[in-house]
Amino acid sequence: MSFGGVDLLVVAVYMTGVTLWGAWLGRGNRGGTDYFLGSRQLPWWAVMLSVVATETSTLTFLSIPGVAYLGTLAFLQLTLGYLAGRIVVAARLLPAYYRGELSTAYELLDRRFGPGARKYTSGVFMVTRLLADSVRLFATAIPLAIITGWSYPISILAIGAVTLAYTYFGGIKAVVLVDALQMALYVAGGIIAVALLHGVVEGGWGSILSQASQAGKLQVFDFSTSPAVAYTFWAGLVGGGFLSMASHGTDQLIVQRLLTCRDVRHSQRALVGSGVVVLFQFALFLMVGLGLWAFYQGRPFDRSDEIFARFIIDEMPVGVRGLLIAGVFAAAMSSLSSSINSLASASAYDFWAPAAGKADDDVAVLRAGKVFTLVWAGLLVFGAIVFIPLSVGTAAVEVALAVASMVYGGLLGAFALGVLTTTTSGRGAVIGMTVGIATVVAIWVFARDLVAWPWFVFIGASVTMAVGSNFRKK
Questions:
Q1: How far is the C-alpha of 138 from the C-alpha of 218, rounded, in Å?
Q2: Do residues 182 and 58 lie in contact, with contact meaning Cβ atoms separated by under 8 Å?
Q3: DSSP letter at 26?
Q4: Would you say 128 and 105 are in contact if contact means Cβ atoms under 8 Å apart?
Q5: Cα angle vertex 333, ends 89, 182, to 5°?
Q6: Is 364 helix (H, G, I), strand (E, B) or coil?
Q7: DSSP conformation class of 322
Q8: Quick one: pLDDT at residue 283?
Q9: How high does pLDDT run on average in the chain?
Q10: Nearest residue to 342 via CA among 130, 165, 156
Q11: 399: closest CA among 348, 335, 453?
């Protein structure tokens, strides 16, 4: 079946409408606080949906079905840790962020360890976010390339240009509110896919689940204690918990959203609520993967991220295909816009404003932030194009999580030293973080078959704290 006519109209209308609405939402931006923090007045429910959309996005829509297609439901174990980690962050870190009205996550380390630690951790965040979100952007180019016949680079450029338009003009308010809309759309796409799979697989979901059960694909819990197995109960609870503490407590991508709430209680509500929503969202898209496995009878694909995209293009009815592809783009734009805005805010607040002596000039921060928005959008597009030859045979969701996990441990360890200790020096935090990240990178290079990626954050944080705590303030 070809993709055109009504389907293209649905996608074009949606993307045009989102771009215009997002730009319109930014009409009241007068300074950096408006542009990057939404005047700290955004509703908690919108922030909650934005957090979920930001952390999952296209990787959930396309990659998670591929994970279930190739394996089992064991990926769901990670959500146990995701929820536990959020609860810890809500109890320990969010109150610290709301004392003093911080602008970025790394300003907390400035107050505890000094500007050197702030710049170092912010720089690590930037490199990590650039690498991980370049992978996310590439994943979204897959269905666009299939639909249009465009090359991957052209598809990446098209998505990047549309997203940049409303992010540049709208700021964080546009990012959060558009995220909320876009999450609703791509979850609706998952529900539609579940309903359609019931009709195209003989025997419907009863048959799908029966076949999956016989093949051992309904397994959720694996109590193996081997660190080489990625998806086990212990890796999910401990590894997923530490990953969530790092991503939602130290990554400006998420922390920036939490700082847009009017007070710490609303921020806590948004954060913990997002953990519950993620659990149901992952379950939905894993079920889509099982349905696709039954439909295609487990046939091989060049990329696991292609499976759901191919089903949408080849099997969905006219109009519905357009809606689901719009859902793919919605998922991509939510993550990409969040990444661009958070990278620009860290650049403006953590580096440019202190160096230029403009920390108290809100209008100057806004102007600089818009320049950084353009710069980071270009770098993310370039990174996605670079990832193309590295992607064969790899699920993008696992690549992105592994890349982020290699440095998250160091970030989490540095924040733990800042919040839980009073004697560790700034030099100790930086050295501990460096050693923690280096340890995990070494494991990735030399022992990735022995230690699975969900353990990376736990290992990195432990090493960071052990090393950093030996350096005490004089």
A1: 30
A2: no
A3: G
A4: no
A5: 75
A6: helix
A7: H
A8: 94
A9: 87
A10: 130
A11: 453
Sign of the Cα torsion 72, 75, 79, 81 reads positive
Q: Whole-angstrom Cα distance, residue 376 to residue 134?
A: 11
In single-letter form, the type of residue at position 210 comes to S
Tokens 């959060």 identify what position?
A: 176
Residue 153 and residue 276: Cα distance in Å, rounded? 36
The Cα 474–Cα 466 span in angstroms is 19
Q: Is the pLDDT of residue 451 over 70?
A: yes
The span from the CA of 96 to the CA of 306, in Å, is 42
- By C-alpha distance, which of 271, 272, 224, 216 is closest to 77? 224
Amino acid identity, position 473:
K
What are the tokens at 233?
Answer: 């109960």
Confidence of residue 386 (pLDDT cuts 50, 70, 90): confident
We find that the CATH architecture of domain 6-389 is: Up-down Bundle (1.20)
First to last CA, the chain: 71
pLDDT at residue 391 tops 60: no
- The DSSP annotation for 240-307 comes to HHHHHHHHHHT-HHHHHHHTTSSSHHHHHHHHHHHHHHHHHHHHHHHHHHHHHHHHHTT---S-TTHH
**Residue 185, φ and ψ in degrees, nearest 5:** -70, -45
Q: How many residues does the structure list for the chain?
A: 474
pLDDT tens across 124-133, in order? 889 888 887 8
Distance CA 156, CA 194 (A): 28
pLDDT digits (tens, 9 = 90+) for 40-82: 889 999 999 999 988 776 667 777 898 899 989 998 998 999 9
Residue 206 in tokens: 């009863």
Tell me the C-alpha distance between 474 and 334, whole Å.
46
- Token pair 């009073």 in the structure block, residue: 422
